[in-house]
Amino acid sequence: MSTDQQPPVILIVESDDEVRPALVHNVQRWGYRVIVSLDVKDAIERVREGALKIELILINQVGQSIDQLLDGGRAIRQQSAEHSINAFIVVLAEKYGEDLEGQDVQLGAYEYITYLEHGDQLMELLYRLCPV
Asked: Whole-model pTM?
């Protein structure tokens, strides 16, 4: 990224009051600009009115299925400005077996589920999808 470019924007959808501050802090520390929403409805409102190009939608799985969250991410992406239509969707899986731990599963050209083994795994995935 050249010095005159802005860092990529990540939209974080996180309803958990305990997790949200640390997640936002880490993503900002890794060099990204962050927009925070508590749920999909709020996120849709934010992307409709915003002029920022959203590079990635990061959704933490809290109380919903992965399919529901991917559908929510797709709805956010569809309602976003034209320049964000290809934003990546990354779902942070909440509960999973040891066989999935440490994997990033790509479901389509722009959709991923990450089964975190350690915090650096998320950072590495974000850097790969949206270099800073």
From this structure: 0.91
